[in-house]
């Protein structure tokens, strides 16, 4: 609640989120009702068959809003991973020899299947991830945009000719699939991050072993069901399910060290990305790493303020703030700071927090305990450093946390700056001039997304070029699209997903030199 009309607004942190759910923590099992119940698969998918873990181990998948069990799935290990790698390896030659048009047609059929079941897929995402239904529906659409785009790209893996200095020579460069791809997907977009990796691999003629996210494997298994129905040959797509811990780490290591795997694509933390890079060194795999971000979001005093506020709300709180490109350090020009804070608190104060399935809910719970604990720690660190919580700031029951706005103390970097919060906490800093804010924005080890708002064309070019990130939103906080190269610089990793170059992560150039002509 914002006290309207005040020069120096004060905010009430309690009772703001009157819809904050109470008594939602339940025991027992929940029946996830789907229009097409076949999508709720509880076995993993290897070599065209639904299988249990070789060890017989299982794990629970929990609804993140109610904490009820929604399914039991396999908890697989190294042995299952090796079986999946063998299946993908055996299937590779056959799949690579299919014409690009055949690969296009199957991917296109999958696109239609996903459209047909979009509603059920969104409900599965809400249950296992926690995000609100509108975010989950957006994720299904986003996921399928990669399926459609890479169906179209399958037939466009053009090579080139390179003019030779010798008149008797002709050089032709062709593109060929790299081989089996190991694809490690995160829980924050349990469907979209898989289609963004798997579809370019399939379009290129590669086969894939997907390690579904531990906390949210059901979307991946539902996708496997549709892949099976569409008629992809056995072994072309294999989906493993892991449980957090030692076995999961060994599964990742097996994928990275196997000589049968030629490319590894991972989305997740910089810490894990570095481990995977080390493990992949022994077989020199082609790597694509989309790692953590810590996005600066800068609002200059010449910006359209309302546009900047509404875009920050979307950028920061989309999917409960659990995105790698979420605004993490928000820099507001001194002259507009108070007005910006007030407008932001007014909009964020309207959030309805609750079970993502419920009508009208705009923000769901976090995905896991560790994530919730991190936000609690960040809120405490901000307060300890002299920052002021102006909205929210409280943990709720289960995995809920209030959308929170904090004001950083003047001209001070906070201990939370080096590490992305990955949750619904927006920390606002003041800045005085362009050079200072660019320096502060770039003063971190990572660089995935970055945003700024300004109506000065010269500044748009200057700042856009100066920010050390892989993607810059200029007068927008929403940059994600299937059609752009998505990826980072510095310790946010390398490689690009989606867009015109996404398929290249799974292709190799081969040069044919014709001589004696
Ligand atoms: C991510 O959080 O890693 C992906 C976000 C997006 O593609 O929008």
TrEMBL record:
GO cellular component terms given for this protein: cytoplasm
Gene Ontology terms, MF aspect: succinate-semialdehyde dehydrogenase (NAD+) activity
Pathway involvement of the protein, from the record: Amino-acid degradation; 4-aminobutanoate degradation
The UniProt record lists the keyword Oxidoreductase: yes
Superkingdom field: Eukaryota
Residue ranges of every copy of the Aldehyde dehydrogenase domain listed in the record: 50-511
One of the GO BP terms on file: gamma-aminobutyric acid catabolic process
Keyword line: Oxidoreductase
Enzyme Commission number(s) from the entry: 1.2.1.16
Protein's recorded name: succinate-semialdehyde dehydrogenase [NAD(P)(+)]
Annotated source species: Malassezia psittaci
Lineage of the species this protein comes from: Eukaryota, Fungi, Dikarya, Basidiomycota, Ustilaginomycotina
């Amino acid at each position: 609640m914002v006290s309207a009309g005040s020069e120096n607004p004060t905010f009430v942190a309690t009772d703001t989120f009157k819809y904050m759910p109470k008594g939602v923590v339940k025991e027992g099992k929940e029946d996830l009702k789907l229009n097409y119940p076949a999508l709720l698969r509880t076995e993993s998918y290897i070599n065209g068959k639904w299988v249990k873990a070789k060890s017989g181990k299982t794990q629970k998948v929990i609804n993140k809003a109610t904490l009820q069990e929604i399914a039991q799935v396999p908890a697989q290990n190294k042995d299952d991973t090796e079986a999946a790698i063998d299946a993908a390896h055996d299937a590779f030659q056959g799949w690579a020899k299919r014409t690009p048009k055949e690969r296009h047609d199957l991917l296109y059929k999958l696109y239609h299947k996903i459209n047909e079941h979009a509603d059920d897929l969104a409900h599965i995402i809400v249950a296992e991830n926690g995000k609100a239904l509108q975010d989950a529906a957006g994720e299904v659409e986003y996921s399928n945009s990669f399926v459609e785009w890479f169906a179209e790209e399958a037939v466009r893996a053009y090579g080139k000719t390179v003019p030779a200095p010798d008149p008797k020579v002709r050089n032709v460069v062709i593109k060929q699939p790299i081989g089996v791809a190991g694809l490690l997907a995160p829980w924050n977009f349990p469907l979209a991050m898989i289609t963004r990796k798997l579809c370019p691999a399939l379009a290129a003629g590669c086969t894939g072993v997907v390690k579904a996210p531990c906390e949210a494997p059901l979307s991946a298994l539902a996708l496997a069901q549709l892949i099976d129905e569409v008629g992809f040959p056995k072994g072309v797509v294999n989906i493993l399910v892991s449980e957090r811990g030692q076995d999961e780490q060994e599964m990742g290591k097996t994928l990275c060290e196997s000589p049968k795997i030629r490319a590894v694509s991972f989305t997740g933390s910089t810490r894990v990305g570095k481990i995977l890079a080390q493990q992949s060194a022994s077989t020199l795999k082609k790597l694509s790493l989309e790692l953590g971000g810590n996005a600066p979001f800068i609002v200059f005093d010449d910006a359209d303020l309302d546009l900047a506020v509404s875009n920050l709300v979307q950028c920061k709180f989309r999917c409960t703030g659990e995105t790698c490109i979420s605004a993490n350090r928000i820099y507001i020009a001194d002259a507009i700071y108070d007005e910006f804070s007030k407008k932001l608190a007014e909009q964020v104060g309207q959030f309805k927090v609750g079970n993502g399935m419920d009508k009208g809910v705009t923000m769901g719970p976090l995905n896991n305990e560790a994530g919730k604990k991190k936000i609690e720690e960040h809120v405490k660190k901000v307060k300890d450093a002299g920052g002021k919580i102006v909205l929210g700031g409280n943990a709720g029951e289960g995995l809920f946390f209030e959308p929170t706005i904090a004001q950083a103390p003047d001209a001070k970097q906070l201990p939370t700056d080096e590490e992305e919060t990955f949750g619904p906490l927006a920390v606002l800093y003041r800045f005085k001039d362009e050079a200072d804010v660019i320096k502060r924005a770039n003063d971190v080890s990572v660089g995935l997304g970055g945003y700024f708002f300004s109506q000065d064309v010269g500044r748009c070019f200057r700042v856009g070029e100066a920010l050390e990130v892989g993607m810059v939103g200029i007068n927008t906080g929403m940059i994600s699209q299937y059609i752009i190269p998505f990826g980072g610089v510095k310790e946010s990793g390398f490689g690009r997903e989606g867009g015109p170059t996404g398929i290249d992560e799974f292709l190799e150039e081969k040069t044919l030199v014709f001589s004696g002509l």
